[in-house]
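During the second year of the project, the team shifted from modelling isolated chains to modelling whole assemblies. The rationale, set out in the original proposal, was that interfaces cannot be judged from single-chain predictions alone. As a representative example for this report, we include one of the complexes processed in the last quarter. Its constituent sequences, exactly as entered into the pipeline, are reproduced here:
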Amino acid sequence: MKSLPRFAIIGHPNEGKSSIVATLSLNDGVAISATPGETIQQQRFDLKAGEQTIIEFVDTPGFQNPQATLQWFRENEEAGDGRVKRFIETHGDDPDFHHDCELLRPVLEGAGILYVVDASRPMTAVDTAEMEILRLTARPRMAIINPKSNESRFLQSWKTTFRQHFNSVRTFNAQTARYLDRIELLEALKSIDQDWEPALSEAVELVRMDRQRSTERAAEAIVEHLEQSLRCSCSSFLEHESGVELEKRKLESEYRAKLAKIEKRFREQIRDVYSVRKVAVELPENSVLAEDLFSERAWQALGLTQKQLAIAGALLGAGIGVGADLAAGGITFGVFASIGAAIGAGSALWKGKDLARAKISQLPLGGLKVTVGPNVSEQFPFVQLDRYFLYVEFVSNWAHARQEAEVHLVESNEKAGLSSTWEQGDLKVATRFVKAVKSRNAEELESSGRALRQLLVGVLGA
Amino acid sequence: MSGKGKRNATRWSLDQLVGYECALAKDESEDWQSLKAQDAETHLEEGLLLSGDRRAIAAGWLKLRLEASPEIKLASDSVMQSLKAAGQLLGAGGLLLGLASATAALAYTGEAPINVSAFFSLFVLLQAVLAVVLLLVFAAPRSWRERLAFGPLFRATRWILESIFSKLQALSARFLSGQQRQDAAEWAGAARRSLALHGSVAKWLAFTKIQAAALCFNFGVLAALLVSVVFSDRAFGWQTTLETESESVGQLVEVVSLPWAWAYGEGEGYPSLQQIEGSRIVLKEGTRGLESVDLAAWWRFLALGVLSYGVLPRLIFYFLGKWQIRASLARYDFGNASAERLMQRLRPEGPRFDAERVEQGAEQIASGVGGVDLQATTRQRVLCLCSRELGESFDLEALRTRLAQRWGVRQESVEVKTYENGRIAAAAADLSEERQFVIVFESWMPPIREIERQVRELRAQMDERNLLKIVLLGIPDSAGEAISLRPEKQYAEAWHSFVQRLGDPYLILDNPAL
Ligand SMILES: Nc1nc2c(ncn2[C@@H]2O[C@H](COP(=O)(O)OP(=O)(O)OP(=O)(O)O)[C@@H](O)[C@H]2O)c(=O)[nH]1
Ligand SMILES: [Mg+2]
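Output from the structure prediction step:
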């Protein structure tokens, strides 16, 4: 079997090597810590597409004796390319040189070198020695600048030195890199050794395909869970009218819990799709994503703008026949009236609570049926869609080196979601799906779902 | 802790030392600024501070500190208490062991007399041999002695520990996080540091406790012997399978009894030849042929033997140990890093170590700046070592100025020397000891093995009681600052841990305001 491209991530202790490995191999199980010397053994982390390994990344310990090692390399010039091998043979048993041998081992086994440096600090004698050692190994190598802070005064001198020692230089922030940054880095790896170009091209292609698959799975999850959210309702039977108020409140909270559960399932599925395992299951309370579905702020920040809403309403209305269906759902005002109100009174009117209002129907054989949900607001599907979408967008670009247990998204009062950017055509696709869900037309649901999926794949993949 | 003569500053008792260590250990966790503030509160005599007598200053500070924080006193008292309790336990154990083993040796069934040979060799001869060995150890020169008595043991344990450590390393990677490994290494460093500082006291303390226990053992043996003689009728005899003549036994007995022969002579203090002859046990003859007077003559010999070869030497060694503890305490040196740090703390108007940018007052001579405790740096020349690369990226002249400011010394007495390829020790090899060595590092360079090795090597070249300083540079701010002595927190922490791990009591990180 042809050997896979393999890269050893090498550098100082605590410089962010393991972080780079985590982000590149999409593995949040890599041990990262603020203590220098966390990694003391080389360890391989494979980047996979499905079950297939595409690229092997090797996390290594930091240099512990760069200057002594360099000295040895210089004194043993006659060994030529066998120097790394000889070095490991000579120093393998010396506990003082354990780390240095360990980090050179993958190099000996033919790995390319990714030298990681935090360029927000000045260079030292130790850095120079490390770079020189790597140059003397004569392996294809690239310098990766992983800036831990915004300090850029020293960047230029680093770059100048890098050019003398490395085939290529790139900036890659392990903690903020998104999917595209990763792809760019992988593309750039081709340039450090021509021999790897075909293998790496193939690898990048596989990464892209894998990403596409993930996107499709995510879009599918969105559509599926959107349908569930739109269908979601709770009802119960009562003998007398006396308990109705209490029952209504109970059902309301049940309804919320049910929706929350659907969301939770969705989140888990998405995290699974993008192998984000370590970060807390729930995103923090005050992020837009974790915002209670019924909170005012979520309603204002997500979903459609008022103008779009008017269009959506029209689209919805036109298909169904004015209000008939919705009225049957127990709506308190007709679609057109509601649009008018929305335009006139602003988004405050669109509180989820009101729109998920309970409906009470008299049963022919006596007793009452109390039902809460489905939510009948035109805004609701879009709010929900936006939440799903934002979540996917966030998770799919998660840098696996990040150590936070919870994440705070920046909140804004602007429309933050996806749907507010939609033109009429896209809106039409979405509303068609919403309609199909409500009408319970299986065929229509199938085809409109497919259309919405495609739409989402397009936006997510962009 | 009594103030046994304030003037007699060289006295430094064990509980003072324990209290001192407790107080310093407590202060370890405080930050520099609050320590400074706290010390400003304690009003040490100005005269004392100016005297520069570190031991007296430390004693004075300790006294005030203990008064101010009873919890430190409590901690040190409990350490002393447990030391005492351990001693008592050992003593009781010794006594019991003595009683039990002697009683067992004196067990008398009435069928055969008590075998003197066994009792004698166990409780007299063996003890005498042990005492002689110990005496020889003491008679040997100090260096031999230490090597002989403690060296092999230490080396063996160290070797075992080290081999276990290296075996564990691979294992620990799997089970311990970097933080845990670092904590363990820091702990080991602290232990090494304590051993270097207090090893001698601890050693002699253990020695006296063991001697006291041995003394108790002898008392137990004596008590058992006396009890058995007074309260029962015991017959003593001797036996051997060897073809020994009674004469030679008599000679041996005579030699052994020399110490007390002048007081208790033949037949009283030790059996006469005739008595020896009479108390020989020959198995096939049974007990009948033995003279009961001859049998009794032995016990005094045994008792006096235990007294002279057991009790007496132990007593001597015990007091020798006591004396050595005092000597070690008097030798305790206040030039080490933690004492140095304490002195820095106590200096009222000392130069501000964390100063943003001290006014250009470097040419000033130190005496103006507090003038307290004219420490080594002010008298000696200071040699700063830094890498060639550091010299290329930074203005060494500015470094000199800043360091002179920091220490309050003349700029001329600060010398800067660069080294190549990280060979710190080599660069300092041919320099005289008259200077104070300071190594300057970029704080953002990680404290790696290589540096650790060099620091150790440098230390090996120096007197182990010479203070070695590490100074960390910070990244200069963007406003054109040439040199910064304020290392960033995350880097400073790594270096602090590094110094901790090294466990060198005379190595000091000179950026205390971390
Ligand atoms: N701010 C910031 N911190 C980073 C970045 N990359 C890594 N870090 C932090 O730097 C520290 C060290 O990261 P690691 O990835 O464990 O470094 P390492 O090189 O593997 O360290 P050793 O295994 O100890 O040699 C961790 O606390 C990371 O969170 C970055 O891009 N930005
Ligand atoms: Mg690591």
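The interface with chain B takes residues 12-14, 31, 33-41, 62-68, 70-71, 95-96, 98-99, 121-126, 128-129, 151, 153 of chain A (CB under 8 Å). Chain A is about 50% helix and 10% strand.
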